[in-house]
Each structure stands twice: as C-alpha cells, then as structure tokens.
C-alpha cells in the first residue's frame, strides 16, 4: 500500500496535517502522535458506526486507556442541540476530563457536531476528524468550521475550532451510497469555477471515473480539494474576506435545506443546485458568459446532482437568505463567479434574484 | 462626578478596558468607540431589565440603528440551553447579522450566557459586559470565561471568549439585594489569601464599609479585584496553569451548587463556604496554620456568607467534584492555600477530603 499523502493546514500554533490514503484505519503508523490523554471518545452515527467504529477503536486502543463511544442518529435533521447534548451527556457520564480527545467518525454532520462539542466541552478539548464521506473529506472536515443548525438558519450556532489532525481513509468511500457520492462531488466541482480552472478541466475529464469510484481519481480529488481549501483557509481562517468564496452555491443551498426542512435534500445536493442558481445570477449580472455557466451546470448534472430547486416561492427564498451569515444590515451577499476561475462576494438586486429563482426552480 | 477609572486586560489583539465608576450608564463618553454595527442586542433578566435596560438602551441609541432586547428568567437554575436559546431566537427573529454587538446587562449568569451566545452566534459576534452585581464586577465579567451549566456539572459547556469592553457602573450596586452583595464579597475576599495579603488586610479593615455600600470602599474593591484578575488572566488566558488559582473555593462550591440544585445557593455563597472547606483542606495538608485559616474564615463569616455546607454526604461531594474541570484522569485537583498569599493546585487523599467535609457540613 502506498504511504498516505499529506496536506498541511498552516495556521500558526493551530496548524495540522490531513492524511489521505487507503487503509488508514488499519495502519498503526497513522495513529501515532495524537494528543495525549487518558480517554478518547469516538462520535459516530447509526449508519457509520456499524461499519467502522470497531476499526477506529482498535486503532486508538494502544494510545488511550479508555476509548468511549457515542452513536448519534444519522442525518442533517439531527444536527441540533438535543443531539449535540448526547455527546456532552456521554462525556460527563464517563467522567471525561479536559484532555479527553474526541474523534469524529462520519460525514459532515458528525464532524460539525463533534467539532462544536469539542470547542465547548469544558471550554475546549482536542478533536480529530476521521471523515468517511466524500463531502467531509474534500470540504467539511478541513478548516475548523463547526456548528449546529437553528430552525431558522443553517449552521447558525457554532465556533471556529481547528482539529488536531484529519485522517481521510479513502477505503471508507467504498460503502458510500451513490447519492452521498454525488453530494460530495458538488463540493469538489465548487473548487473549479471559484479558484482553479485546470482542476475544473480535470474533473470534467474524470467525472465518470469518480462516479465509478476509481481509487486514483478519488485520491486526486481529495488531495487537490484539500490543497485548495488549505490555501484559502490559511489566508483567512475566520472568514473576514477571502474564505467566503468557499460558500459558492451555499447561500441558495442553505435556503433550500432550511426551506424544505433539514435532511430532505443532502447538503451537497442543495449546494449543487445552489451553484446553478449562483451561476445564473453571475450571468445576469454580466460577470460570466452563457458558455461558462452552461459548462459548469452540465458538469453538475453529470455528477447526478439536481439543477433545479424546489418551488418554495421567491419570497420564501429571499426571507431565508436574509439570515445567511454573509448578510450585512439585512442585505444578502452572494458568492458570484466574477469571470471563470475567480469568485467575488457582492449583493444583488432582489428583482434579479427573483428572475434567477423563477428560472431555476420547478 | 470623578472620571471613571480604567483597568486594562492585556491579551494581544484581544485586549480590552474595564471602566469603573459611578453613573457610567448616564455618561455618553463611556459609550463611544464600541464595535460598529447596525444593531445591538441587550440581554438582561427579569430583575435587572426593569431597573436599568431603558438607561442602557438610551446610551446605545446614538450608536446603533436598532437596539433590540431579550429578557431572560433570573437565576442560576436558568443558566441552561433552553434559556441560552432565547438569545439565539431573538437574534434570528430580528435578522441580526454577524456584526451585531451583544450587551450583557446583569450579573454573572447573564454575563456567562451572553458571552457564550456571542461566542457561538454565527461562530462569533462581539459582546460587551455591563455587570450590575458586585460578583460580576469583581470577577465573572472579566477574563472571558463563558458557559452554561449541565445537570451533571457547573459551567461544563462554554468558551473562552473575551468581551470588547467591560463597563462597571458602581451605582447599580445600590439596588443589589443584601444576599447578592455578600455573594460578591466572597469573590473579593478570594483574592486576598491566593494573591495579595495587603488587600486581605484592607478588606478586613473595611468590611463594614463594604456591607454599608460606601461608594469609595466599593470603588476600591472593584478596581483592585479587576487589577488582580487582569494580572492573572494576562499571564494565562486559557487556564493552562496559573489561572486555576482563581478557582479557590470553587471545587467545593460547584459541588454544593450542583448537589443542591442550581439556584438554591447563590454562586458566591457556595464559593464562600467552599473557601472555608479549602482552607481546612490546606490546614490538614500542613500548608497553612490554624491562625490563618481561622482569620480568613472569620472574614467570610463577617461578610454574612455561610461557613458550613449542606449535608449532601461525603460520597456525593466526591462524585460531584470528580467532574470538576480541573480534575485529571478521575483525580480531583484542589486549589489550596500554600502559605498565606500563595495558592497551588494539587490532589488530596479522599480520606482527608472526607474529614474536611465532616467538619464543614451540617
């Protein structure tokens, strides 16, 4: 087995490595040098725990006297306080102290909740991301954004809190349902139009290989996605500027998720459709041409992602988007494509947004 | 009216000033230079809001287009998630963006919850402490510890998150119930045995003036307490070492609060009694002499604080203290007086702790 590849997130004393490779859960070398403690808590969900929790616990056993576990219900609709509290309940029931290391074993929901629990338990304990979905491996496990949802807005309650390490075992992608694979590809495709046209070319050329889960193709997209994310987050950890471009498609996407009720669409599905809307907005604002918008939209469709949003009504979309975290003084700010390979954040007239919504929902 | 005095908390880019004086709520000069935003949210409780919220809102009106308000139920028993969520509900109902400034108007509970809400709302918005109790002015509003309680442990869920400013209007102490005044004096007395024997002398000489709320005496204790806290927190913001000494009396005290049910005793009352227990422990460990332990205990009694704890049973005390945030690997670590004016953090044999509890409860 080839040695895992490493991508470094450079954030001063909060820097850490992302290890990417096949078989990491079974490779003892990957589990050395983690934060020292007497106890670890594996946080997973009802879908992932039966598949991988035993392997992770075995990997941790040589390093922690006690390895506890808590299994959360699966799904975005459970990314809320009562579910988060299950983690705190378990930590306190097991008498876990403030050196205890949390391990997030699962997708974006598990990672976001474990990270926020780690940020908040006793005002901060270390945590490690062990993402098992493509979406988590290419995006959500990296960069320290943690949160839970509020009924009125996605990821409204959370913290910037960096993990001590990220371990992406590519083998876990073998068990991923096809819908989840496509959802992950949404966040992969995202990096092209906002930052890296060569990567966009590569994804177009390899989309069938990715859908067929060819290991070399998956290894490349995880590594390249993490590299781009590392570059952006390294420049703007707390999203005072540049980092917002990573939210391409997310303003519309979060509105879809909240409007339909969390868990109805997968986050990546909403982002895929949200990118189509953001491309149409960019087009109507005269920032990209029709050909580029069509090109990226076609790729999103090839990834088996939805390209039309639910008919929530334009007013409901606008209402939901006004509580987006990028909004300022009640004005929605959109991530738009400002020429191929470059993103910008700007407001847009409501009338134009309504046109986009009319075109892109059904 | 004399100009307010200022104590600086030096924490690099997170540094801020504490303003201390009479009439600050009515002095426009004190409310300039706060973080800029279109909206502010005043967080208070049912006791304090009727007394001071209108004044604070008037002070903020020239600086924020919108000044919203949320009034929480009063008391330590409400320092929990459902109450915290009232703050998030109001922020989202009013469409507050991530520049919104939160103002904590009240005592330690309001300050701790507002701070944690500010740390978590959209992953962090600025906040300002406007403490209206002696306890909050001398201790809890300064230093960035924020938290809510978990049924199994005090302040278990929170963040280190510094305010942008602290404004201590000494006039608000005029309306403080006597029990709350005594509770605040517990945190004042604390600074003597752990750090400053000259201050201990001063408190002993002026305890009657403090109980009579003489303005000059209150001004001195607030300023000197903040200076000591600034010195300690400036050296150890996240409690990796030194800062733990500020928890003198708190390990026993938190057990009393959790054991009786939050809100039964005031936090300061539990700390007062907890200091008596910690002094007895220090004595039994041979770290201080009987005379010093008696001297501080007598001062705690003169401040009208309890010096004997509730009879929860030694095993229940030990169980509750094992989840204390200073505990490591199941071993309780106590702040003890290691000679007059100097504190240390160390474990103690259960048998000795049981003797202390037998002596100090009834």
UniProtKB/TrEMBL annotation, chains A, B:
InterPro entries per the UniProt record, alphabetical: Dehydroquinate_synthase, DHQ_synth_AroB, DHQ_synth_fam, DHQS/DOIS_N, DHQS_C
Pathway: Metabolic intermediate biosynthesis; chorismate biosynthesis; chorismate from D-erythrose 4-phosphate and phosphoenolpyruvate: step 2/7
Textual note on the cofactor: Binds 1 divalent metal cation per subunit. Can use either Co(2+) or Zn(2+).
Example GO molecular function: nucleotide binding
SUPFAM superfamilies with a match to the protein in the record: Dehydroquinate synthase-like
Lyase recorded as keyword: yes
Positions of the 3-dehydroquinate synthase N-terminal domain: 70-182
Binding annotation for NAD(+): 74-79, 108-112, 132-133, 145, 154, 172-175
UniProt: Zn(2+) binding residues: 187, 250, 267
Enzyme class: lyase
Family indicated by similarity: Belongs to the sugar phosphate cyclases superfamily. Dehydroquinate synthase family.
HAMAP family found in the cross-reference section: DHQ_synthase (MF_00110)
Annotated protein name in UniProt: 3-dehydroquinate synthase
Name of encoding gene: aroB
